[in-house]
Amino acid sequence: MKRIFYLFSVLLAAISLHAENVFVVDEIDVKQGEEKVISVALTNDGDAASAAIDIALPEGLSFVAGTLAGSVEFSDRAAGMMSKSSNIRSSGELRVGMAFGTIAAGSGELFTFKVKASDAVPLGSYKITYTNQSLTINSAKVTIPDMQTDINVIKVYSVSVQTDGYTGGSVAVTAGSVGSEVKAGTSITVEATAAEGYHFVKWSDEATDNPYTFTVTADKSLTASFAPNKYKITFDSNGGTAVADLEADYKAAITAPEAPTKTGYTFAGWNPEFPETMPLNGATLTAQWTPILYTLTYNLAGGAVATANPIEYTIESEAITLNNPTREGYTFAGWTGTDLTEAIQTVTIAKGSIGNREYTATWTPVVYAITYDLAGGAVATDNPATYTIETADFTLTNPTREGYTFAGWTGTDISEATQAVTIAKGSMGNRSYVATWTPILYTLTYNLAGGEVATANPTEYTIESEDIILTNPTREG
Which of 242, 261, 289 is the last residue of a domain? Predict the structure, then answer.
C-alpha cells in the first residue's frame, strides 16, 4: 500500500530540528459495516520518554470498543513504557498516550487501533485526523505537526474471469486483478486470444472490445466466446463437370459432394483426399481420373487378319486403323458396325473416341471365270461361264460332235479325260476345260454279187479317215 507521510510544509524552527520524528499511518480501505485495524508507526531519531497522539474519525466511522478504548493494542516498541493508555475524549477523539519509559530510537509500528464503518456511510474517501502529536526526547518535548490520512469507504464485488478451458482460444487478465473482493471502481483489462482457426466473438456481457477494459460496479463473471472461422474448399474438376465450392466452419464435419463426371473417364477421387472435417484455411482439391477401358470385338465372318486388331482402347489411345482381314474366295467388302452406316474398307478409331465397339467383316465372293474348248463340239445347254465359292455344286454338260464319241473333259484339276466333271461348292479359281473326242468307227460291208476284187476294200472307217476310193470288183462273164 502507498505509504503517506503528512507533514506541514512549514515548521517552526524548533520543530525543524527534529524533522525525522514522525508518526506514519497507511491509507486504509474499509467496507461498509466492516471493522478495520489501523497501524500507527513511529520514526524517532532519539530515545523517546513519552509519546502522545489524538485521533479524530470522520462522520460515519467509529472506534471499536475493546479492552482499551479504540481496541488499541501496543506493539513491542512500546514495551518499555510503564504507562500506556487510550481513552475517548469528550470531543470524540481517541487519545493514545505512553509515558514513564523509553521508546528506543528507530522506526516501526507503535500501536494499532480499530475502527468500524457504519452500514450507511456513503462510499467515498474520508480523512482521519491526527493532532496533538508529541514526543519527549532528551527531556525536551517535540511537537509533531498535525496530519491526515485517507480512509476509503469502499464496496467490493466478486469478479471472476474464465481464463482457460475454452475451445478456440484463451483469456488473460492484463491489467487489474480479479477475485472475491474487488474494489468498486477498479479498472480491469482482459484480452482474448483466439486459437488458430478461430476468432473472438464477444464477452458474456455482450461487449465486443478486445482488449476489453471495464470498471467494477457489480459482481461480474466474465467469459469469452470464440467461434471457428469459416473456410472454403474449392474443387478443380480437371476437365470434368463443375463442382460447387464447399464452405464450413473450421473442424466441422463435412460430406464430400457428388463426384464430377468426365467423358471417357472414371472418377478416381480427389488429390489431396477429401478431409473428414474442414481443414485450416480450407483447401483446393483436384479430381483424379482413370481412363475407361472400352472393348473392341470383331466378327471376321470366316476371315482372318495377319496382325490382330486391338481388343481394347481408351479415350487417350492414339488413333487405331483396323487391319483388314482376308478370306479365301472372297474380296473384303468393308467393315460394318459401331458408328458405320455402310460397309467401309478403311475404319479408323480416332483418338478421343469412347464406348465399346463391335465390327463385322463383310465379304463379296470372288467371281471366277470358266472357259471351255469344245473342240468342234457343241452343248445343248451352255455350261456356266462363271462361278463363286458359294455356287452350289454343278456338273458340266457334256458336248456332242458329229462323228465322234465324247471322250471326256481335260483341264483344271483333272489329271485325265473325265466324262463327268463336277465343280463342288467351295471351289475357287479360274477354270479351263477342253472337250476330248474319240472318232466313231463305222463299218463298210460289200455285196460283190458274184464278183471279186483284186485288192480288198476297207471294212471300216471314221470321220477322220482319208478319202477312200473303192476297188471295183470283176466277175467273169
Answer: 289
Residue 304: predicted pLDDT: 97
Dihedral of CA 78/79/85/88: which sign? positive
How high does pLDDT run on average in the chain?
Answer: 93
Backbone angles phi and psi of 131, in degrees to 5:
-130, 175
- Report field, pTM of the whole predicted structure over 0.70: no
The answer to whether residues 262 and 384 belong to one domain is: no
pLDDT digits (tens, 9 = 90+) for 394-424: 999 999 999 999 999 999 999 999 999 999 9
**97 and 43 share one domain:** yes
Residue 48 lies in a domain: yes
Q: Are residue 165 and residue 145 in the same domain, yes or no?
A: no
Structural domain range at position 335 = 294-365
Co-location of 204 and 319 in the same domain = no
Q: Which among 235, 259, 237 has a CA at the least distance from the CA of 247?
A: 235
**Residue 386 and residue 360 in one domain:** no
Residues 316-367 have pLDDT tens digits of 999 999 999 999 999 999 999 999 999 999 999 999 999 999 999 999 999 9
> Rounded to the nearest 10 degrees, how much is the dihedral formed by the CA atoms of 261, 264, 266, 267?
-40
Q: 42 is written with which cell numbers?
A: 513511529
Q: Are 117 and 61 in contact (CB under 8 A)?
A: yes
Distances in Å between the Cα of 256 and the Cα atoms of 253, 276, 317 are 10, 8, 31
Domain annotation covers residue 447: no
Average pLDDT over residues 234-257: 97
Q: What angle do CA 384, 387, 390 make, to 5 degrees?
A: 135
